[in-house]
Predict the structure of diguanylate cyclase.
Amino acid sequence: MDVTQEKLIEALRKTISRTSMLAEGNDPEIDKALQQMRLNIAKTDDVNVVLESLKSLEPHVLSFDDKRLERAQAFRNTLHDLLDVLESAPQANISLTAKKQFEANLRSHWQTISSWPGLLLQFSSLVEASLTTPTSEEKRPPSLINRLFGRKETRSTETKHSHEDIMVHICHTLAGLIQNLNLPDNYQLQIQDLIQALSGNRDIQQLPALLDEVINLVMVAVGKTQDDLAGYLNQLNKQLASINASIISSYKSQKTLSNQRQDFDSHLTQQVQETSAMANSASDLDSLKSLINERMSTITETMSRYREDMKKQEQQAAKSISQLKHKVNKMEQDASHLRSKMQQKIAEAMTDELTKLPNRASYQEAVMTLCTSARASQTPLCLAVLDIDRFKSINDTWGHLAGDKVLRLVPRQAQTALRKQDVLFRYGGEEFVLLLPALSLEQALATAERVRAAVEQTPFNMNGEPVSITISIGVSLFDGNESSEELFARADKNLYRAKTEGRNRVIGDNS
């Protein structure tokens, strides 16, 4: 073994030893196993001894993880019970926005013990606001910062680790946003620099500056779209002016043709009248014959000139019509191109870039339409909320690239269990929404179970190591009177139950 390898092994020993010290204090059995592991690593170079130490530690870690999950479930259930009690209080006036914000934070952080004080403080603020706000007071919507990080009180008690997790998620989302912007080629270097700055960034203090850069690029993209549209409208205006000139030219040609026809008629009539008058005054046959020949020659010349003028006018008219047809065809092609481009942009705006599923904006439009239709036709409509189990652990263990891979895999497998009329949306993060029209609750639960099984049975590997991917699903039946938000809230609550009751399961109304 060379010196470099010895130094590397010694560094790994120190790393394992010091890292294990960070884990002490959570469970006595784990503490004993960690101490024994440090002794074994320090005393021997035998790989088998080290592996055996790690193997003996594994069941203790799994047991501790189960206990931690049980405590987290109890904490979460308690907060939900307290929220139900608060809602049932007659004097309480709960802001729907504040309630949704609290539920969203609870759903995101109930498993992170370091976030519990912040959640309790946020619930305390919700109680205080609910019991002191008059019923007539207008509810103020949460600010962007509140939606990103929760209430101010919560932020003050969150740990640095929570801030870093939030920052990584925001940067990952912003990077995906700017990659989808339609920007001129001279901005590509700036885009690459910004993506590099966002990649893996954990410093939340840099967020305002990064947001400024992203906003500037978005404004450039919006301005480019407006410039493209203005350019097209300017081109369209020129084409319309050209068509108008062609129409005026055709009108003038038609008027000239009409005048020439009148001149020909007048001239021919005059020639005939003069011939008749001279024929009457002719004294002998020879002079009459000479007169008729002269007049016939004049009439023939007039008709020949008229035919020539008519031919020129017809050629000019045909040319004008051809030019006009070409201009109209060009306008139709430009309009078709712009229409296709606009349709493409609309489709992109309604599609999630990562999964290629309809996004949340598309869901909002579809669910209102389907609820209205179901209410009018008295046909059933079910909504399911799907959430990938332990997705944060996947991101933390394997990185965001692995997380993105899972986000693409899950909907692809889920769709194998769906009908053509069933629509799956990416709602945000690791959460998806499934609309199931014309299905009873029992049928929707059966469909959701097939979706769950399809995902669970899909093999997934990361660096050659198998990784278990499962989902939890909450299902609700539209009652015909509620809003789409209320329907989603019930399905979301069923999802919470599926999570707290062990994950990898389907929970429906009255289950």
